[in-house]
């Protein structure tokens, strides 16, 4: 895998991977000296990466205690997914009218990557491929400002996806739903695509309610 162009980007990618894979679990303190030494970097790019993750809600900072991984919160998940529904529906509606054969190939290829990762049980690879799949659908909308906000929302909920994908039943459901989404995109059925994407998100939230609902009661998310 090619290393990101800057040290800060490299550190940010590694921290994201550690959170998604569960190496850094919800509520776990982040030992900056240990992580910096393990990555072979100074604490400067590590601090900058942590500020980015804090802005996304993936880590929290407490005076005199430092950074820790954010606890999973049902309230946070519901808010983020509601925002995604509003923004992604608009992007999907516009994108459907602009999809080219090259766009459809990218969507299909990403879907196949999701399937392979699901079969291998590789949650990190599945999350990355799933992200490529969804943004291949949305990027043809030509709405870069809207998509920047959507990317931030996705960044904030990767840890939730790891929990969702940990179930073989959920992985199989994702694959089936992706097939229907691809069919709607290929046939230019914008309203069907929007409906299928909404169901796709709702199924993830419903599955996660039982997993994080009780934990998220006291807190402030496919």
Automatic annotation (TrEMBL):
Q: Which residues form the HTH gntR-type domain?
A: 5-72
Per UniProt, the keywords (alphabetical) are: DNA-binding, Transcription, Transcription regulation
Gene3D superfamilies this protein is in? GntR ligand-binding domain-like, Winged helix-like DNA-binding domain superfamily/Winged helix DNA-binding domain
* SMART domains, alphabetized: FCD, HTH_GNTR
User: What InterPro entries does UniProt report for this protein, alphabetically?
Assistant: GntR_C, TF_FadR/GntR_C, Tscrpt_reg_HTH_GntR, WH-like_DNA-bd_sf, WH_DNA-bd_sf
**Protein name as it appears in the record:** GntR family transcriptional regulator
